[in-house]
Amino acid sequence: MLALYILLTFMIIGAVVAVQVKDVLSSVIALGAVGLGLCLVFLILKAPDVAITQLVVEILSLIILIRATLKRDLPHVPSGGWWIPTAAGIGFAAILLLVAVRCFPDLPVFGEPKLRVAQHYLNSGLEETGATNLVASVILDYRAFDTLGEVTVLFAVVVAVLVIARPVGRKKLDQVEEEFDE
User: Fold this and answer.
1) Could you tell me if 36 and 56 are in contact, meaning their C-beta atoms sit under 8 angstroms apart?
2) Structural domain boundaries of the chain?
3) What span, in angstroms and rounded, lies between the C-alpha atoms of 132 and 126?
4) What single DSSP character describes residue 130?
5) For position 149, what pLDDT does the model report?
6) pLDDT of residue 94
7) Distance set, CA 47 to CA 34, 40, 44, 179 (Å)
8) How much is the pLDDT for 12?
9) Backbone angles phi, psi at 133, to 5 degrees
């Protein structure tokens, strides 16, 4: 439970940073940190499928948003400062490789089911749900809250992309009236 509180605090701090920073690129990166924290919260709450959906959507939206803001908000890097991003990239790749080497041996053998829930769905899905389509019954009856969580994640990302990528500012009331007059 302490890990959940730490992650929620991290997400709140990231959201405040995303709102308070001056440049758009830093705001997008802070928003990505909030999404990563949300992914970890889903893992702690035992919803790995929602966490995977959050992570995939977060990575794709970050790539799109960073690409969209890179030309407009690129900070100036003095000459000779190329080694800092390179070292950070190599360090990140080394940490990722270390985590992968430690985690891959714990994965089950391919084709060997880790959970026995699927057999229960196949054996008693028709009687418990009344649906002849077992895939739909799993998505809408057994895993309805996870499906709702995944849809909520997708909706939140679409709203965030629309808010960040919208045209700069809104038109003033007199500008709107001038357009109607023309």
Assistant:
1) no
2) 2-72+114-169
3) 6
4) -
5) 81
6) 92
7) 17, 10, 8, 50
8) 92
9) -90, 105
For the domain 2-72+114-169, what is the CATH code? 1.20.120
- Give the whole-angstrom CA distance, residue 142 versus residue 31: 32
List, for residues 111-138, the tens digit of each pLDDT value.
Answer: 666 667 777 888 888 888 888 888 888 8
* Integer-rounded Cα radius of gyration of the chain: 22
- 13 CB contacts (<8 Å, ≥6 apart)? none
Question: What CA–CA distances, in Å, run from 167 to 138, 155, 161, 163?
Answer: 41, 20, 12, 9
**This model's pTM is above 0.85:** no
Distance (Å, rounded) from C-alpha 56 to C-alpha 30? 17
Residue 64 is predicted with a pLDDT of 81
Pick out the chain residues at pLDDT < 50.
none
Q: For residue 59, what are the contacts with CB-CB under 8 A and spacing of at least 6?
A: none
- What single letter denotes the amino acid at residue 14? G
- Which tokens go with 127? 């009687």
